[in-house]
Design goal:
It contains 11 helices and no strands. With about 240 residues, it is mainly alpha-helical. The protein has 2 domains: about 180 residues, no CATH class; about 55 residues, no CATH class.
Length: about 240
């Protein structure tokens, strides 16, 4: 078993790298907290949702379904589909954590978000070494920031009516775009991103219910096809 220690460099780098994302996600957290109150949850229940679920997309989708009185099965299935991308994240982490004890693996799994994954993989690419301490720092700081912003949303949602009408959900798209763009370093990845984006936009316009899933699958399929069949010199840096 590899022994990981919290080095000053890992702690400093983790805090510094994740802080812009904590700030960027704050309006999203505020929106989740306010939506929870508008959906009829008590302040304690609303905050517990962020503490225990810790998934912005799942929380927003679940709260939206609760707002239209959707059934438990519908909320559960939608949450499972939205969270399915974490299977890919965990598969990438597995090779680095497989020999770690359970008390190390389960908090890593709980803290594993899009942001934590993106930062950890970027550091792995740069340093050529998986830094679990860095990963935990980014995860815990982001978790703390998310719950602080959610708490603000709960407080504001209890005092300011119709807070969700301010359009705070736009920050969600901005944050994911900022996370994806730096990862576009080859033609297959570029094709994958463009295909997924255009497909998701079109399916959203026509009102297709499962557009997110279809666009993701199409993007990966076409990106993989480019990677497999195009000449290597074409598949270089974009």
């Amino acid at each position: 078993m590899t022994t990981y220690t919290l080095k000053n460099e890992s702690f400093t780098a983790g805090c510094f790298d994740v802080m812009p994302l904590v700030i960027a996600v704050a309006p999203w957290g505020i929106l989740c907290g306010a939506m929870a109150i508008e959906a009829g949850l008590s302040p304690v229940q609303a905050q517990a949702m962020s503490l225990l679920i810790f998934g912005g997309a799942v929380q927003l989708a679940g709260l939206g379904l609760m707002g239209v009185n959707a059934g438990f099965a519908s909320i559960l299935s939608t949450s499972a589909v939205i969270s399915s991308r974490h299977l890919l994240y965990s598969a990438a982490f597995r090779q680095h954590l497989i020999h770690e004890p359970f008390h190390v693996r389960w908090p890593a799994a709980f803290l594993l978000t899009d942001e934590m994954f993106a930062l950890t993989m970027a550091r792995l690419t740069t340093t050529k070494q998986f830094d679990l301490a860095y990963s935990f720092v980014t995860g815990f700081v982001f978790y703390f920031g998310w719950n602080i912003s959610s708490f603000i949303g709960v407080v504001l949602g209890s005092t300011i009516p119709d807070l969700t009408s301010l359009g705070l959900e736009f920050i969600v798209a901005c944050m994911f775009i900022a996370m994806v763009i730096p990862q576009i370093k080859s033609l297959p990845v570029l094709v994958c991103v463009v295909t997924s984006g255009l497909t998701a936009t079109y399916l959203s316009i026509i009102g297709f219910e499962h557009g997110l899933i279809v666009s993701g699958v199409m993007g990966m399929a076409i990106g993989y096809t480019c990677h497999k069949y195009l000449p290597k010199h074409i598949n270089g840096d974009a």
